[in-house]
């Protein structure tokens, strides 16, 4: 399986990357561009020029489908993750899933868009399951009066 990454950087870093990619590399001050991750695979360092930024590999709250082709005939579906580069001093995220999606309508997506798990009493679920198994076996439910 191949993976595709979305690189989310602060605006100042984005300008520097765009300048590096569009201009002649020999005339740019930012000649080095590097991304490396530590042993855990979730935290790392992003280097552009002489500046170092902390980076985190984050899961997105929803499935993001993207496709790639090598021969304009066969399409490969890719898994998309996000690499978030932070300014020095910004706190590290305490979770591995990014709370918001890629676009403004997906802000706080898990909380607003998806159904909550119902609050069920485990004892009630077990009792109903037992009653259903009894009924399917030809018996009756417990504590049920048949008139």
TrEMBL record:
Gene Ontology biological process: RNA polymerase II preinitiation complex assembly
Keyword Signal set for record: no
TAFII55 protein conserved region domain location: 1-143
Subcellular location: Nucleus
Recorded superkingdom: Eukaryota
Gene Ontology CC entries for this record: transcription factor TFIID complex
Keywords annotated in UniProt: Nucleus, Transcription, Transcription regulation
Main location: nucleus
Homology family: Belongs to the TAF7 family.
Name of the featured protein: TAFII55 protein conserved region domain-containing protein
């Amino acid at each position: 399986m191949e993976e595709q990454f979305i690189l989310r950087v602060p605006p100042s870093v984005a300008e520097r990357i765009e300048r590096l990619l569009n201009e002649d590399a020999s005339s740019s001050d930012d000649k080095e561009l590097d991304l490396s991750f530590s042993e855990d695979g979730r935290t790392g360092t992003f280097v552009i020029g002489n500046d170092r930024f902390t980076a985190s590999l984050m899961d997105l709250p929803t499935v993001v489908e993207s496709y790639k082709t090598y021969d304009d005939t066969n399409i490969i579906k890719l898994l998309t993750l996000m690499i978030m580069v932070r300014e020095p001093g910004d706190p590290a995220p305490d979770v591995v899933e990014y709370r918001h999606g890629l676009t403004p309508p997906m802000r706080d997506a898990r909380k607003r868009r998806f159904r909550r798990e119902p609050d069920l009493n485990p004892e009630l679920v077990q009792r109903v399951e037992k009653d259903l198994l009894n009924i399917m076996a030809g018996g009756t439910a417990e504590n049920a009066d048949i008139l």
